[in-house]
Every structure is written in C-alpha cells, then in structure tokens.
Specification:
Oligomer: homotetramer
Largest sheet of chain A: 7 strands, mixed
Structural class of chain A: alpha/beta
CATH architecture of the largest domain in chain A: 3-Layer(aba) Sandwich
Number of strands of chain A: 13
Largest interface: A-B, 35 and 35 residues
Number of helices of chain A: 8
Distance between the termini of chain A: 22 Å
Strand order of the largest sheet of chain A: 7-6-5-8-9-10-11
CATH superfamily of the largest domain in chain A: Formyl transferase, N-terminal domain
Radius of gyration of chain A: 21 Å
C-alpha cells in the first residue's frame, strides 16, 4: 500500500435530512478528493440516512491527521454518527472456535493467501483439537476450557487476551459457548458470529436437528453482529441451500458447513472493507 | 392420453423392512410392466420406507380395475399405506383466494396452457375483485365474504361447494382466512397453502413486515399441506430470494410475489403428478 | 399519482471525471429537491460514470417543463448522455409473442394487478392461439404470420403498428422470429428480449436441447436489450435453476418457463422504473 | 469402519431393458443384503439405464471376494458396464495446482477434518508457492515447472508420480496447464477439473475477463471429468452467484473463488462416494 493508493472511507448514519448527499460529496470534491465509491441509503421506515464514501487521499487537500477535525463541523450540524478509516490500517482479528474447524481453516487460509486485509494473531478455543491448525498458520493458540463453574473466569481471560493482543474484531467461528451480555457489549459491532440456520428460524441449540425434524426444504446460515440477545443481532449476510427428504441431520450438518464458512467469510470481508453500517438492529451492506 | 400411453403410479409408505424394493419391482416386472420411474427412500431417523413407482399399462398383465386387489396382499404383508393413480385421471381443483391475484392468475394461465394436468372449475373468495380473473379463464366464481360472525356459516358453504363440484384438491392461493381444524382435517393432504415466508421463520400474520423489521437478507416462500396447526404442516417446496437494506416492506411484498407464485405452482404440480408422499409431518418429494 | 408524489428521475452516463456526484447532488439540493434515491457507479475498466438520481418534485424550485433547459449546461460541461423521466408518465408496451403464452399471461396479469407502471395496448403474434389471452386483458391483438417470403412485409406492418399505437417499449416475450437489424436499431435500448439460456451459453436455436445434450446441471434465462447482434445485446437480468440427469429436454422446457417469465418481468420492471443505464454493451442496474 | 458397518456399492450402466430394477434388487435381497440406498434412472433420450445400489455387507450371503464373480452372470445377460466398491477402500488423491491455493487449502482442510473419505498423499505444482500448504497438511510436494519446451517431459514425470504413489483420482484444483489427450485418456473418469465459469459459457482462458466484458449478471463454476476435449468433459456439479455492474474482473475473481472451492469439493465428494456414473458425455449424479 503506497501513499499513492491510500484511500479514506467515511461511514455516516444520521436522521434523514435534505442535502446530506450534496454536502458530503461537496466536502470531498472541494478538497480535491477523487471519489472511487459512494453509496447511500435512506431507510424511510426508520427515517435514517446511511452513507459510505471512499476517496483517494493522493492530492487530497486535507492531511490525514487533520481530516477528523475538518469533518467534525459537518457531522455536528447533521447529528451524524460517523467513523473514518484508512486503507493502510490492518485490523487484528481473534478467532474463537470450539471443535469444528471448517470456518477457522477457511479464515486462516484466506488470510495467508492475502484475501483478507487483516491479521489473525490469535485463536482461542475451549477445546484443544485445533491447536495445530492455528499454529501452522502462524497464530498463537490459547486453550481456555469452559464449564459452568469456570465460565466467568475464562471469559475474563478471553477479554484479557483480546486487550493484550489489541484485537479489533472477534470472530465466533462456530464457538459453541454463549458469551455474557457484558462481554458482548464491550465490543459493539465488533463481534461477528455465524449461526447455522437462516435466522430467525432455528435460533438456539442444534439448528440442523430442528431443521431435520421440521422437514424444511432449505437450510441456511446467518452471519450477524453479536448482541446481548442470543442470535438476535444485526444480520450481515445469509444464504440457503437446498435439502430434501434424503438428507439426514448428519448430511445437513455436512452441507451446512460450506454455507457457514462462505457466509462467515463474506461477512468478515464486508466488515473489514467498512461496507457495513449498523443502525437500529439492522445492517446496511454496501457491496 | 391414449390407452397406449396410460401409466399407473403407486405410492407406498410403511415401516422399513428388507425386500421392499425387490418385492414391488418384481410385482411390476412379473406382470409385464415397463417401469418408467422408480424412486424410494428410507428415512432412517423415522424408520419409514417410502416409494414411488410408475409404469406403462400397455401390455401390463393385470387390468386396471383388478390392480388394487392384486396388489393388496403385498400391501398387507408389509403393512403399507398405499395409493394408486392412473395418468388419465384429471383431478379437480378449487382455488381459494383473497384480494391478491398473482397466484390465482398464474394457476389459471398454467391450466389454460396445458401445463397443469387438472381442472380448475371453481374459485372461491372472500372478496369480489378477482371475479373477472376467474370467469375469463372459465371458472365459476363464488363470493363468500367472511367476518367473525359469519365465519362458521361461510366455511360450511365452502365445504358445500367443494362437495358439489367434486373437488380433489384445495389450493389456498393467498387466502387470508384461517380455516378451522375441522375443515382442514376433512381434506387430509389435499389442501396446499402458500405461506409468504421461509417457514418456520415468520409464521402467522404479516411475514414481510416481520422480515423487514428483523433486517433479514433473504425472504422466502413455503408451500405446504395445511394441517390443524397453522403454518405447521408438511412442507412441499420452499425458495428464497435476496433482499437488502434498500428493500422496504412494500418492495419485499413485491419481490415475494414471484417466489410465492412459482413455489405454489411447483408444489401443486408435484402433488398432481403424485410425486409427494406425506409421512409423519414431513413430505418426501420424488422430483 | 398526485402532484405531491411526483418524482423526477435523472439518468446520466459520461466519461469519468471528478466532481460528478457533488455537482448533480448540489443541483438537486440547491433547487430544493428531496432526493429519495441516488446511486452511481464508475466502471473503472471502461472509464465511464453512470448515475441515477430520483427526487420529489413537490417544492422543487424549477418547474417540470423548464427542468431540461436548467440541467443542460451541467450536461454540456461534463459531456453527459442523459435522460429525464417523470413518475406520472405511463409508457406504452407492445408485446410480441409466438405460440408460448407464459410470459405474455404473466405480463398482462401484472399489468392488470397494477404491478407494472405501463400500459399494454397491443399484442402482436405470428400465431393465432393467444388472441383470447390478449383480448381478455383488454389488449388489441394483431395476427401477423411470417414466412420467408412475407417477412420483410410483416416487419413493416409491425413497425406501422408500433408507430400507430405510440409504443415506447417492445417486449419480445418468446417471439421466435429474428427481427432485422434495421428494425432493432430503430428502437435503441427499447426492445427487451428473453432468451431461454444463461447467455452467452446456448445462444441461437433450441437452447434447452443444447443444454440437455451438454448435460449441464443448471439451466438459465437471460433478459437483454435487443441489438443487431442476435442474443448479443446488453444483459439486464439473468437467473438459473438446478436440473439433473433426470431432466429431459421437455422437463427443462417446463422448468425454464418459470425462469423466463420471472426474469423477463424483472427486466421490464427495471426498465420501466428507469433503473437501467446502457453503456457500451453493458447495463448498469440500480436496483 | 468395522466389518459391521461395511457396505458395498454397485454402479451399473447399460442399454435400457425391462426387469433391470427387479433383477438387481432381487439379487441383493435374495442374498440377505439390507439396501440402504438405491437409485436408478433411465435416460429416455439416450436409451441408457444407470443404477446405484448400496447395501450392508453384514449378514450378506456372498463373501466380499466372491461378489464380483457372483454378479457377473447378471451383468453379462444385460450387457452392463459395472463397478463394485467397498466402503473401507480409501482412494488416494493427487492434487495438481498452480499459483492459486484456495481449492487446495480447502481440500486439504476437509481431508484433515475427516470430511473426505480419501487420502491426499501428494500435491504437484508448476509453481513453488504452495509447498508449505501441502507439507503443513502432511502431503508430499513436487515442484514440476512447465514451459513449452519441458511440457512433455514434465507430464511424463507427473505420470510417474501418479503411478509411484498409486493415485486413484487426480484433482485439477486450478491447475492452469493443459494436459495432453494421452495423459487424460490414461485416467478415464478419474480426473476432476474445476473450470471457473458456468460451462459451456466462457470455456478456455480468462473466463472472468470474458464475463466482465460480456456484462453477465451471474458468474459460475463447473466441476467436470477431464476428457481430451478442453473444458468439454461430463459435468458433475455447477453453481452460479450474482454479480452486478459494480463488479470488476478482480472482484469477479474474488467472488468466484468461493464458488470454485465449494463446487470442486462437492464433485470430489460425489465421486468418492461413488455417486456419479458417466454415460456418453453426461454424468448421472445420485445425491
């Protein structure tokens, strides 16, 4: 990433008002920024405006370090929630996983092939079996087994690791433990979970068993930001695949794996590219 | 349909036992039947065997009218639920509909183009607006408005029409009234409903509103046999389509229409071709 | 459509330059327009910028009839191709069809249910069998049979009908005759064809036979603007559906019908809502 | 895999004749086999019958080693092509790959997690960059660079490795070199290739560039058995994913990766479970 290629990405959400598109575009244009992606949306039901603008920093009239201060007056006048990201920032991911390794392997391989613009310095698991997966790909592995008695203590240790390793994004890659509301609220819009059903169908435990018993003709996977409400957070990505009466719970589990890994990876990529904006309990995805 | 092309279709379900495939195939073969479709499945979870066999009646050694009696001993020895259908039987459909006409138009047009091997002699609605749709396509239209007070009475009149017109299959093509358990139980596996969500998500009223509020990235449609449990019957067909944060409830309704009409038509066709077998609360679909 | 709800939609394409988003947004904002949809894209490969902006005309400072002249200077300074549409304009569609009626029925039913913001005053066919379909839905039907000898003459008659009925959009709803380049060029980006394959696979005749013979596991449908090159015009919408070794050419034809009618209707809707912009041989679709 | 769980799978293809289903089912039943999967199909266009039957060997009356001889008379009388497989046989896979590692990583991870019932003892590449991927997962890595001059020689060395390591299945996991017809014919129905388009569209080089230039709204991937005709062999699995005008060739490449790896893995699994039967240039897939 040379200075020449550096881009800035501005994410905005605020109450809908006239002139928002013009004002932001004009701010970038007046300062000499070349917009390479701009997208916006008004949710008329919620009366919320959300916008993503990405522009080249080469030739931009405001230096990077002054940009927040320069934009603040606009943000204030419209009551904006906003964040600013530069393309040379490499977020740090912690992957939490239990026994099932498909999502973990997939994320680690993407990272090594350069498809994810992030580092994955640590992997945390309540089981031991995926240690070699992590270390082969250069991640530290921490085994933090959990039972009813040790749960609060182990959660505290996870938090400690996240701080110590300066983690920006937590990915629950089939981590089968429920995190406390306090934990989740400490990482707002920064924990992505993959649930193995097309939510809101089959929330909670054993979704494939539920799907088998209900006799559905589609199974699904849902990647969402974790919130205090289990399986209830803002959805980032969902997908489904056909099943039939021939499928057992076991073959649904098997078919579901591909959905889970692809849907989770897609959501992580969208987050890393700053293409998601959460408002209310929804996610705008500018893909 | 000439005698030469006539086929028989046998549907079987029974507890799983050895020799089922061989016995049925041998019955057809020994009597000179040429099998043109055979499919079977054992649901190992439920320990149920289901089978569909279709063969040409030309040159078959047992005349049509003697066939049930000839097969009965086999059925008895394995404890089979079974039914036998001939390809020259044309089932009679009643379509029940409320204000939304897309599924009705679609079914009527398919019928006229010869894509459905069934007649649609009557359309019943609690609204008046689709009368011309029905009569243009040669169906009688009955307007049976429903309110809390008249509901039992009107349901009785619907039943009367179904009997009078010798109806084999009732299609609820976005009929927005809940039928009583007694009504539904009178037509076991003979009422097909289209629900405008990927069940079991968003059962009940206003599924698109629920979907919009939950912020899902997929909407769906489910065609199922109606049972006494609302939106809980055996699923025949499901499909989903992508939505995004740009979609309002209104655009979800609009996109959902195409799903609903295609999914319902698919389920009706599968039923008419005797490709569905209900066991427990599930449907085997031999497509 | 009351004056209060009236919206204007501006479609723009031009060589990519800085300031385009800001300039157009500022034009709308300065004149008091409330933007209800704005989307834009730069095709970096082609160096083309395309934009769609829709705003409410209520309270807009420039009267409808003066709007083109007011925008012209901006268009000139950036070298824009542009068009302007008002939401109370109801385009007039001619449907051309051969023997297969599924797309025709579908479009006519959508029109009657108010799902298409267009009129369908005429249907033209080289066969007679769909006359009642057209007239039941209030369209004039013209039977213009075609053979090698009469083709140029009949094409001239079709053109005559299009002019006489002031047709804005021609929909080839499985019209199995090839129109001459001269005909097609007379309606640039105003003829939509449905081809029954996922183009560019299986262009030309009998795509389902080709698909069956090749043993594909997916069949598709493609809606595109007709150009002088057969099946080569800008694609608006495509979809696919699974098939298997069990499918014959006949069942592929049957399954394909649903794809064709839904894909064609989607493309027609996108065109009518001014959500498509053609540049080069491609289509930007702002859905 | 204990003796108790051992199953036999019989694959049959032959000219269509009466009595095939009954004869094979009766053979298994008479000898005490419990059928756990039976599926068959007649391709009426090609007049070919194909069948897959899987049964438990526990309590089966014919010992494993005598089974081929016991079945041979049936095969002879119907002119069958047939093969017999036991569930404790673990095929050996060689993966051939160039620079792109996503399919390789995916296959290796599936193997390690026990999702593929096969070994992957060797990986062969014309580049060096994926050596660590292979060795981390316990596979030998052979670097056999290819240019116009060395191609025949290197192909001979690949063949040597395949023989030396007793390879049953060759997987071309984005191997960007064209193998000679002689090579391919030496492994009939035993080389699976993933092509990064929905064949027959965009055969040959740079399919994503072709797709970008054509402006398609779907991209695809196709897994097929390699034959002497490039990208022309029997198709096992295909899938597509939506793209839009926003996609560049680069983002199509990126989105396509997920399709490629999932489609290839699916095809490899189907092959390993003996669920594919090739006849003519088509594949019956009993899933």
């Amino acid at each position: 990433m040379t200075e020449t290629n550096l881009t800035a990405t501005l994410l905005v959400s605020c109450p809908d008002q006239r002139g928002l598109v013009a004002t932001v575009a004009e701010f970038v244009f007046r300062n000499g920024g070349n917009i390479i992606h701009a997208d916006q949306h008004t949710d008329t039901g919620e009366q919320v405006f959300v916008q993503r603008v990405e522009w080249e920093m080469a030739d931009f009239g405001i230096p990077r370090e002054s940009l927040p201060a320069a934009f603040q007056p606009i943000a204030d006048s419209y009551g904006m929630n906003w964040s600013l990201h530069f393309s040379d920032e490499i977020p740090r991911i912690a992957v939490l996983v239990s026994r099932e390794g498909h999502c973990l392997y997939d994320l680690l391989a993407r990272r090594r092939m350069g498809e994810l613009s992030a580092d994955i310095p640590i992997v945390i698991s309540n089981h031991q079996n995926l240690e070699k997966a992590a270390t082969d790909f250069g991640a530290e592995f921490f085994h933090l087994p959990v039972d009813a008695a040790t749960k609060p203590h182990q959660e505290a240790r996870i938090l400690e690791k996240l701080r110590e390793w300066r983690i920006d994004l937590v990915v629950l890659a089939r981590y089968m433990q429920i995190l406390s509301p306090e934990f989740v609220q400490g990482y707002p819009h920064s924990i992505i979970n993959i649930h193995h059903s097309f939510l809101p169908a089959f929330a909670g435990a054993r979704p494939y068993r539920q799907a088998y018993q209900r006799g559905v003709k589609l199974i699904g996977a849902t990647a969402h930001y974790a919130t205090a409400e289990l399986d209830g957070g803002p959805i980032i990505a969902q997908d489904t695949v056909r099943v039939s009466h021939r499928d057992t719970e076991a073959t649904m589990v098997h078919k579901g794996r591909d959905l889970e890994m692809v849907t989770l990876a897609r959501a992580v990529e969208l987050h890393l590219e700053h293409r998601t904006i959460v408002y209310g309990n929804k996610t705008a995805v500018f893909d």
